[in-house]
Design brief:
alpha+beta; 4-stranded antiparallel β-sheet; rod-shaped; about 20% strand
C-alpha cells in the first residue's frame, strides 16, 4: 500500500485562513472603533441636550463600547480557535495515516527483501546445479549465437566462456555431415518444434571429440524479449566406444586379435555375392594338442599369439582368420586368369609352410611344429 499524501490544497486553504484571521480581526476592530469615535458623540449630543446627563451618558457609552468590543473579540477569537482546532485535528489524522502507511511500507520492504532473498537463493541453487551437472547445457538465440553455457559444456569443448559466448554455435562443429544436420535442426526450432535425439560430434581444440546426444527446446519470450533455444547434451562417448568394442569382440578373436569365424562367414558371403576370384587356405598345426598337454596351455597360447602376429606381418596380401583352436583360414584375392590360380596357390602353400615350420622360441621352450594345409579356389562365376 503506497503512503497516503495529505491534501495539500485543503491544508493550504486552512493555513491561509488562520494566517489572515488576525488581520481581519484587527481591521474590523479598527473600523468599528473609527465609526464609534466618529459618530457616537454626535449621536449622543443629538439625543441628550442636558450637559450633566451628557457626561453621565459618556461614561455609559464607554462601558458599552468595552462590552460590545469584548463580545465581538470573543466571537472572532472563538471562530479562529475552531479553525485552529479543526486544522490540528486534520494534522493529527494525516500524521496517523502517514505513520500507518510508513509502518506498512516497512513491512512491505521486509517482505520484498525476503522474497528477493528466496529468489537469489533459488538462482544460486540453479547456477550450482547447472555448473556441477554432467549434462552439457547451452542457451543460444535463433540466429545460432551462444548466449550462455554451463561448465560441463565448456569442459567438453576445451574452451572458456569468453571463447564461446557471442560466437556461432555451428563454428564448434566440423565435418560435411555435422553442420547440415545442425542447420536443419535450427530451422526446425525456428518453426517452433522441439527437436530431440540429435547426435553429433563435439570437437575440442586439440582435435579430439565427444559424442553428444542433444535435446533442444525453443523458449518463447513474454512479448518483450526474443525467443531463445536451450539445448541439453548428454555425453554418450563411452557408450559409443563400448558399442565399437562389442562389435570388435563379435568379429575378433580375443586371444590372437585375428578376425574370427563370424567375420569369416560375413566376408566370404560378401565375396561370393560380388563374384570375385579368391582362394581359401585351411591351415592346421599337427599334434598341437600334444604340445599343450606336455608344456601347458600357457605355452600353447603364447605360440598361437606369435603365429598370429607373424601371419599378419608376412601375409599382408591375405586376410587371416582363426577358425578354432589351432585351425586358421587365410583368404586371398586373385585375378580372373584361372589357369594361373593353382600355381599361385601352390606357391602360397609352400611359403606358408616355410614360415610356420621353423623353430619357435617360447620362453625356455623350443617348438618346431609341422603344418597341414588344404586349399580351395573360387573363380569368377564358379566354385
Amino acid at each position: 500500500m503506497p503512503p497516503i499524501k495529505p491534501d495539500s490544497k485543503d491544508m493550504s486553504t486552512h493555513h491561509s485562513h488562520v494566517t489572515k484571521s488576525p488581520w481581519r480581526t484587527v481591521i474590523g476592530y479598527a473600523f468599528f472603533g473609527f465609526l464609534w469615535i466618529l459618530f457616537s458623540d454626535r449621536l449622543l449630543a443629538f439625543f441628550v441636550q442636558d450637559a450633566a446627563l451628557y457626561t453621565t451618558m459618556q461614561t455609559y457609552k464607554g462601558w458599552f463600547y468595552v462590552i460590545l468590543t469584548s463580545i465581538a473579540l470573543y466571537f472572532l477569537v472563538k471562530l479562529d480557535y475552531r479553525h485552529i482546532l479543526k486544522l490540528n485535528q486534520q494534522l493529527q489524522d494525516q500524521h496517523q495515516t502517514l505513520e500507518a502507511a510508513y509502518k506498512e511500507s516497512l513491512a512491505l520492504e521486509e517482505e520484498l527483501k525476503e522474497k528477493i532473498g528466496h529468489i537469489l537463493d533459488k538462482q544460486k541453487f540453479i547456477d550450482t546445479v547447472l555448473d556441477y551437472s554432467q549434462v552439457a547445457i547451452v542457451v543460444w538465440n535463433t540466429d545460432g549465437i551462444v548466449m550462455d553455457a554451463n561448465s560441463y559444456y565448456l569442459e567438453l569443448l576445451g574452451r572458456t566462456s569468453k571463447d564461446v559466448i557471442g560466437k556461432r554455435w555451428l563454428d564448434f562443429y566440423e565435418g560435411d555431415t555435422e553442420k547440415p544436420k545442425l542447420e536443419a535442426m535450427i530451422e526446425s526450432l525456428r518453426m517452433g518444434r522441439n527437436v530431440k535425439s540429435i547426435e553429433n560430434k563435439l570437437y575440442k581444440s586439440d582435435g579430439s571429440f565427444s559424442h553428444i546426444l542433444w535435446t533442444n527446446s525453443i523458449i518463447h519470450g513474454n512479448g518483450v524479449s526474443d525467443p531463445y533455444i536451450v539445448s541439453f547434451g548428454l555425453n554418450i562417448t563411452k557408450e559409443r566406444e563400448n558399442e565399437l568394442k562389442a562389435i570388435s569382440l563379435a568379429y575378433e578373436d580375443s586371444l590372437t586379435g585375428l578376425s574370427n569365424r563370424i567375420a569369416f562367414e560375413k566376408d566370404i558371403e560378401t565375396a561370393i555375392e560380388s563374384g570375385i576370384t579368391f582362394a581359401l587356405f585351411y591351415m592346421d598345426i599337427d599334434q598341437f594338442n600334444a604340445f599343450n598337454d606336455l608344456h601347458g596351455h600357457s605355452y600353447g597360447d603364447l605360440f598361437l599369439k606369435q603365429l598370429a602376429e607373424m601371419l599378419k606381418t608376412c601375409c599382408n596380401d591375405m586376410m587371416v582368420y582363426r577358425w578354432s583352436g589351432d585351425d586358421f583360414i587365410l583368404f586371398k584375392l586373385y585375378s580372373n586368369d584361372d589357369s594361373m590360380i593353382q600355381s599361385l596357390m601352390d606357391h602360397d602353400v609352400k611359403t606358408l609352410k616355410q614360415l610356420v615350420q621353423t623353430t619357435w622360441k617360447l620362453k625356455e621352450v623350443n617348438y618346431s611344429p609341422t603344418l597341414s594345409i588344404s586349399s580351395s579356389s573360387r573363380a569368377s562365376d564358379s566354385l
